Amino acid sequence: KQEVTQIPAALSVPEGENLVLNCSFTDSAIYNLQWFRQDPGKGLTSLLLIQSSQREQTSGRLNASLDKSSGRSTLYIAASQPGDSATYLCAVREDSSYKLIFGSGTRLLVRP
Amino acid sequence: DAGVTQSPTHLIKTRGQQVTLRCSPKSGHDTVSWYQQALGQGPQFIFQYYEEEERQRGNFPDRFSGHQFPNYSSELNVNALLLGDSALYLCASSLGHSLDTQYFGPGTRLTVL
Lengths: 112, 113
Description:
Chain A is mainly β. Chain A has strands at residues 4-7, 10-14, 19-25, 30-38, 44-51, 56-59, 62-67, 72-77, 86-94, 100-102, 106-111. Chain A has no helices and 11 strands. In chain B, strand 5 (44-50) and strand 6 form a beta hairpin. Chain B is globular and about 40 Å long.
């Protein structure tokens, strides 16, 4: 059974720091992996999607990497800003499945 | 271009009651998935509807049922509500033939007293 784990559960950093969020999954037979952002009480906003054949994706200050064989992904946020404060969730889609399997998220606070 | 919309925004029910939540997919999308997100947890997959049929189901009891209409909108019904059903219910839409990005709505906050 696929399990997705995110470490750390919470993170507080001063503005301007570069930071890394971690996501691990137990079964490497995934179709893709996606990173989402969720503001309190709100829906999910897709940040980056990495196909299983890709190693990384970049969007602005965000960079996500995928090491399928080791079951790991990282989300790198450069020059963090208070507006980046949110919960970040990773989710995997397995081969031959339509559902997303989520981790519990990392709650990020960027202090001014 | 309207994104995914959900109604109502908030809902309060008592144990044993029944509830219906609604979702309209993003324009051009034909597939709707429902997720339950308990406080402090990641979303859990309930089921997915495509071509008005349930295409895949997660590990939820039969109290959770759904429907998809010809215009691709969808309803989630929960019978015999339990306190543990209190959660944020998220709807996501996508294209049926694609395994790529699902677009999420703002969610419906259900509180069961």
